[in-house]
Design the sequence.
C-alpha cells in the first residue's frame, strides 16, 4: 500500500485534473441541457423536434462512441483545436490552454452526452408541476418565456434537483473515460501510468483511485439526500 | 334582466369543430355573445361545454371553423395570442392559483409582467380587488392556506386584475364543498350585474336562472338549445334538454 503515500502527488494531480474536467463539464452540461430542455417543451414544433432529436441521439449513444467522434472527428476542424479556445477559461483552467487539444475534445464529448440526461432531469421537474399552473399563466397572457420564468421553473427545480444530482454523479464517473482518449494524467489514467509504466501492484492503485472518485461523489450524494429530506418536510 | 347587448357581439364562434381522436367533442358549434351578456352553458358531462369554454381563449385549439374575439380572429400562437388571452379572464374548476406565490402576488403577477404596471399601483389595485371578493385579509397567505371558496375568489380577483373584456368560468364551483358555493356565486352575480361579459359553464341552475341572459344547452358536442333562462327552464324545446332537466331538478 506504500504506493498511496509514495505517489500521493500523482494521485493528487490526477484528482485535481479530474475535478477540473468535472466542474467544466458540469457547467457546460447544465447550460446546454437547460437549453435543450427549453427546446423540448417549447410550443414551436420544429424547436421541439430539434430538442427531441438531440436527446434521442446523445442519450442512446454509448459515451465511448461520442468520445471517439470528438477525439477523431473534431480534429478535422483544426487539429490544434484553436477554434475551441475561450480566453478567460484558458487562464483559469491551465490545461485548457496548454495541453493537447484532447482535453477540450473529451470535455465536449462529456458535455454533449451529459446534457441529454440533464435535459430529461429538468423536464421531469417541469412535468411534476401541475398542468393547470401553466394554463393559468397562459390565460393571464404570460408569454412562454414568462410562464417558464415566473410560474413553472420556480416550482419545478425542487423536483429536478435529485435526478439532476444523479446525472452529475454519473458524469463524474463517466469522466474516467477521458484518459483513453488522449487526456494525460486524469485520475483513472493515473492507474495506467503507475501499474504498466512504473510496475506498482494494481489493487492498491485501484483503491487509491476509487478513493479519489468517492471524495467527489459521496459528498454530492449526501448533499442530495439532505435536500430531499428537507423537501419531504416542506411537503 | 334586460337585454344588455349593444353593437357587434364580443365573442363569435362560427361552425366550430373539434375532435379528440375519434370523439367529435365540438360539432359545428355556432354562438355569439354580446357585450355585457351573461351566457350560462349547461349540459351532461362529456357534452363539450368545458371544451367550448376553453376554446374561446385557445387553451384548446379547434380543428375547423372560426372564433372571433372583439372583431379579431383568434391568433395562432405567440405574442398576439398572449395579448388576446390577457383580455379574457379565465377561472378554472381547480382554481390553479400559483402555489409558490402569495394571494396578492397571484393577483399582481399579470398586471406587472404582462401589462408592465408599476408594482405599487398593481398592489394597490390588487388589494382593492381582494377586498371586493372579500378576502383582503388573506393577501399575504399562500393558496394552500385558504379554503376552496377563498381560493376560487382569489382566482376571480386574479383574472379581474387584468381588466378583461370578458370572463370565462369553467365549472367554477364544481370542486367546492357545498357551503362554499354560495360565496363564489355571490361574487359572480355581482360581476354579472356590473355588466361584465361572461361565459359560465356550470351545474348551478340557481345561478343560471337569476344571473344569466341566455342559457345554452349542449349535448354530444352540439349546441342543442339557446334560450333565455325563464323560457329554457319552463319550457325546454328538445327532448334531451327535458331529459337532462328532469334528472337534475328532481333531487
Sequence:
Amino acid at each position: 500500500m506504500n504506493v498511496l503515500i509514495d505517489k500521493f502527488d500523482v494521485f493528487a494531480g490526477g484528482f485535481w485534473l479530474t475535478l477540473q474536467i468535472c466542474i467544466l463539464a458540469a457547467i457546460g452540461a447544465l447550460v446546454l441541457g437547460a437549453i435543450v430542455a427549453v427546446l423540448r417543451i417549447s410550443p414551436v414544433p420544429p424547436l421541439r423536434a430539434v430538442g427531441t432529436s438531440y436527446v434521442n441521439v446523445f442519450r442512446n449513444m454509448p459515451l465511448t462512441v461520442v468520445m471517439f467522434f470528438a477525439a477523431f472527428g473534431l480534429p478535422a476542424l483544426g487539429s490544434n483545436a484553436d477554434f475551441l479556445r475561450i480566453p478567460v477559461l484558458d487562464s483559469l483552467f491551465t490545461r485548457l490552454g496548454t495541453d493537447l487539444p484532447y482535453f477540450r475534445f473529451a470535455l465536449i464529448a462529456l458535455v454533449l452526452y451529459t446534457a441529454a440526461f440533464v435535459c430529461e432531469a429538468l423536464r421531469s421537474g417541469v412535468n411534476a408541476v401541475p398542468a393547470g399552473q401553466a394554463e393559468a399563466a397562459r390565460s393571464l397572457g404570460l408569454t412562454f418565456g414568462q410562464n417558464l420564468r415566473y410560474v413553472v421553473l420556480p416550482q419545478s427545480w425542487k423536483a429536478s434537483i435529485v435526478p439532476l444530482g444523479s446525472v452529475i454523479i454519473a458524469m463524474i464517473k463517466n469522466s474516467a473515460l477521458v484518459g483513453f482518449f488522449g487526456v494525460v494524467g486524469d485520475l483513472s489514467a493515473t492507474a495506467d501510468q503507475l501499474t504498466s509504466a512504473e510496475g506498482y501492484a494494481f489493487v492498491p492503485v485501484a483503491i487509491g483511485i476509487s478513493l479519489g472518485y468517492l471524495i467527489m461523489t459521496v459528498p454530492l450524494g449526501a448533499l442530495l439526500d439532505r435536500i430531499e429530506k428537507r423537501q419531504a418536510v416542506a411537503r | 334582466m334586460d337585454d344588455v347587448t349593444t353593437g357587434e357581439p364580443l365573442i363569435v364562434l362560427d361552425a366550430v369543430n373539434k375532435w379528440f381522436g375519434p370523439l367529435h367533442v365540438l360539432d359545428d358549434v355556432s354562438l355569439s355573445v354580446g357585450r355585457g351578456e351573461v351566457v350560462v352553458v349547461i349540459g351532461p358531462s362529456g357534452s363539450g361545454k368545458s371544451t367550448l369554454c376553453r376554446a374561446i381563449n385557445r387553451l384548446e385549439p379547434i380543428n375547423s371553423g372560426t372564433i372571433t374575439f372583439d372583431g379579431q380572429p383568434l391568433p395562432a400562437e405567440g405574442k398576439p395570442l398572449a395579448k388576446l388571452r390577457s383580455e379574457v379572464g379565465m377561472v378554472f374548476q381547480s382554481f390553479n392559483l400559483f402555489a409558490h406565490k402569495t394571494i396578492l402576488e397571484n393577483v399582481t403577477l399579470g398586471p406587472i409582467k404582462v401589462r408592465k404596471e408599476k408594482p405599487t399601483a398593481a398592489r394597490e389595485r390588487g388589494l382593492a380587488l381582494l377586498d371586493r371578493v372579500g378576502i383582503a385579509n388573506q393577501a399575504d397567505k399562500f393558496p394552500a392556506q385558504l379554503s376552496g371558496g377563498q381560493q376560487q375568489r382569489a382566482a376571480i380577483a386574479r383574472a379581474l386584475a387584468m381588466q378583461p373584456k370578458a370572463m370565462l368560468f369553467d365549472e367554477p364551483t364544481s370542486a367546492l364543498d357545498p357551503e362554499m358555493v354560495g360565496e363564489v356565486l355571490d361574487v359572480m352575480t355581482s360581476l354579472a350585474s356590473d355588466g361584465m361579459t361572461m361565459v359560465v359553464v356550470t351545474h348551478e341552475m340557481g345561478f343560471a336562472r337569476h344571473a344569466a341572459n341566455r342559457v345554452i344547452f349542449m349535448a354530444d358536442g352540439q349546441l342543442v338549445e339557446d334560450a333565455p333562462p325563464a323560457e329554457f327552464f319552463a319550457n325546454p324545446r328538445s327532448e334531451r334538454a327535458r331529459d337532462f332537466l328532469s334528472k337534475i331538478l328532481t333531487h
User: Anything to note?
Assistant: Residues 8-96+168-247 of chain B form a domain with the Rossmann fold fold (CATH 3.40.50.300). Chain B has a mean pLDDT of 90. Residues 95 and 155 of chain B are 6 Å apart (CA to CA). Chain B is about 35% helix and 25% strand.
